[in-house]
Amino acid sequence: MKFFPKLILLASLCSSVVWAQSPFMAAASAAKSESQDVWWKHAVIYEIYPRSFQDSNGDGIGDLNGITERLDYLQSLGVDAIWLTPIYPSPQVDFGYDISDYEAIDPPYGTMADFDRLLAEAKKRNIRIIMDMVMNHTSDKHPWFIESKSSRNNPKRDWYVWRDGKGPGIPPNNWESVFGHTAWKYDPTTNQWYYHKFYAEQPDLNWRNPEVEKAMFGAVRFWLDRGVAGFRLDAIPTLFEDPQLRDARPVGGTNAYGDPILDDTYTDNLPEVHDVMRRLRALVASYPGNRVLIGETYLPNIQELDKWYGGASHNELNLPMDMQIGFTNKLDANLFRQRIQEVETKVHDNQPLIVFDNHDNIRSWNRYGDGVHDDEIARVLAAMLFTVRGTAMMYYGEELGMVTTPPARVEDVKDPIGKIGWPKEKGRDGERTPMQWSDSKDAGFSTAAATWLPVAPDYKTVNVQSEQADPNSMLNWYKKLIEMRRSNPALHDGSLIMLDKSNPNVLSYLRKAPAGSPSVIVSLNFTAQPQNVSLDLAGTGVAGNTVKTLLTDASALQSTTSLNHIELPPFASWIASVQ
Ligand code: BGC
Predict the structure, then answer these.
(1) Which of 472, 413, 464 has the alpha carbon at shortest distance from 443?
(2) I need a surface site. Which of 76, 114, 149, 203 has the fewest CB within 10 A?
(3) What mean pLDDT, rounded, does the chain reach?
(4) What is the pTM of this model?
(5) Best residue for ligand 1 mutational test, from 85, 298, 360, 431 (most atoms within 8 Å of Cβ)
(6) How much distance in Å is there from the Cα of 338 to the middle of ligand 1?
(7) Whole-angstrom Cα distance, residue 267 to residue 272?
(8) What is the C-alpha to C-alpha distance for residues 11 and 13, in angstroms, rounded to an integer?
């Protein structure tokens, strides 16, 4: 399952909202500070789905105190920042992505004091906290929506997208929810319909109303004032819709919900969103400490990604996610080479953010695995994630080789889309199962009789405790890669130059070190066959032909000394320094 369809740009339409007096001055200073060596450029960002990470009070649901208990583990893994998916008060229809109060903590996760303690304890371990900010929609139980819904002339009416239907029982247009069927819900009290890009319990805010921006930026300040390191902006390309509400064009075929697939020109990635991003960047940049703005940016191509950075102006998001690399779902060396080259050369020297896994998609283990060499393939992808030039983002359990475990029966499904789309769409429960800490009850996640989602059956062998004890485990592979990325100057700061560019089986690149340090070569065999490669550094500005292996998962490669002759076993990863 690819969670979001590719997004397509709408070419025109103009902006309407003015928020700050001089956002561009602040954005210019943001661009200046970005040229310095900021923490997030080297960071490993670890996504935690709090419900599933660690339960500290035995109710079967993970919580903030649970995360605090596990900070030492995260520190030992080498994590620099944690992205927490939403922990705000919420009816939990979309497990936190339906927020009813942006400035508090949902009681099942703990209290504000627990949050402050997590922040402080994380800081002691040099770990920053990044919040999830959901700006496209609120919960239908948020007081703003309750007011908005109460009458047509309520002051908050225009905070959401209300329209008349085309006739009795007929919605304003043919737009569809990402989660299936019409994107409009009829409200009998006022005889109008409201727009919801996601669940009906997630009404879209109307970002053409300046009051909305003001309120949402207030929530942003609230968390910045508390000391968070930045935000991951949820579904951010969906902020604006076509004001004329033009019908979407069917592009052929039907989706998992049986709906016609529609072109999303009028609902996704409208140009107005970039004005908001520049103002948000200015706000965030006015705080000390190089806070970061990360975007959930599923986009159709690299040109669109570049816009989310602000292109040459570097004044929008610091790190819009590059979904073109981690979600190709094809273990194809040529494709990876091409996509890495693109983000190296076509985003105005902005910083790539590479990600393979999150709480919305089948785990990369299953998307890239061939069913036979899944473990080996996962190791190759991890080697790539941590050795290309870029910020690395990972998802809890990825470091253990946790697999996707979807519910077997529709009655066990928790994620509503799994009920709407069963059996074609089983929902996202499979990638949200509890973290596997040990082989004891509930995998050490909880002491409850039943956990909110069942623990995956492989927890007896795939867990932190047993993998810590095994030098060849996935966990130790991740640790070694992260440690090397941190300590090796070429991996830390070097530029990236592709090598052996027409090889369809092996991805090889040079990380060219700053003067005085050895450069590093990475070669990754993407196939189940042995591959021989000969790498030529001519034209790279790096001299030398002799190499020393730094890290590999294939013992045969330990003795490799020459770039002329490298024999890579199936799915081998090899990292070496040029002598
Ligand atoms: C989040 C999903 C969520 C949706 C609606 C996505 O981008 O990652 O988990 O269901 O936004 O908020």
Answers:
(1) 464
(2) 76
(3) 94
(4) 0.94
(5) 360
(6) 28
(7) 12
(8) 7
The CA 497 to ligand 1 mean position distance, Å, reads: 35
Question: Which residues does the annotation mark as catalytic?
Answer: 234, 296
Residues 555 and 574: beta-carbon distance below 8 Å: no
Domain positions in the chain: 40-138+210-477, 143-195, 491-578
Average pLDDT over residues 47-61: 98
Q: What is the mean pLDDT of residues 179-194?
A: 98
Q: Whose CA is nearest to atom 2 of ligand 1?
A: 360
Ligand 1 center to 97 CA (angstroms) = 6
CA separation for the pair 181, 317 (Å, rounded) = 32
Cα 270 from Cα 273, distance rounded (Å) = 6
pLDDT at residue 32, as a whole number: 40
Q: 235 CA to middle of ligand 1, Å?
A: 6
Query: If you classify domain 143-195 with CATH, what class do you get?
Result: alpha beta
Residues counted in the chain: 579
Tell me which residue has its CA closest to atom 3 in ligand 1: 97
Query: In 302-387, which ranges are E strands?
Result: 319-320, 353-355
578, containing H or E segment: strand 573-578
- Which tokens is 402 given? 């946790």
The alpha carbon of 567 is separated from its chain's Cα centroid by a whole number of angstroms, namely: 35
Q: Maximum Cα–Cα distance for the chain, whole Å?
A: 77
Query: What is the position in ligand 1's atom list of the atom closest to the CA of 97?
Result: 12
DSSP E strands in 178-311: the ranges are 184-187, 192-195, 230-233, 250-254, 260-262, 292-295
Banded pLDDT at 37 (limits 50, 70, 90): confident
CATH code linked to domain 491-578: 2.60.40.1180
Q: Residue 182 forms beta bridges with which residues?
A: 176
Domain spanning 40-138+210-477 has what CATH number? 3.20.20.80
- Pick the closest to residue 467 from 400, 378, 395, 403 (CA basis): 400
What are the phi and psi torsion angles at 543 (to 5°)? Answer: -100, 160
Same fold for the domain at 143-195 and the one at 491-578?
A: no
Name which residue sits closest to atom 9 of ligand 1, judged by CA.
360
Pocket of ligand 1 (CB under 6 A): 94, 97, 134, 198, 234-235, 296, 359-360
495: left (phi over 0), alpha (psi -120 to 50) or beta: beta
CA 285/CA 279 separation, integer angstroms: 10
Distance (Å, whole) CA 99 – CA 149? 16
- The tens digit of pLDDT for each residue in 98-129 reads 999 999 999 999 999 999 999 999 999 999 99
Helix (H) or strand (E) holding 336: helix 333-345
Which of 1, 83, 88, 97 should be mutated for ligand 1, with most atoms under 8 A from CB?
97
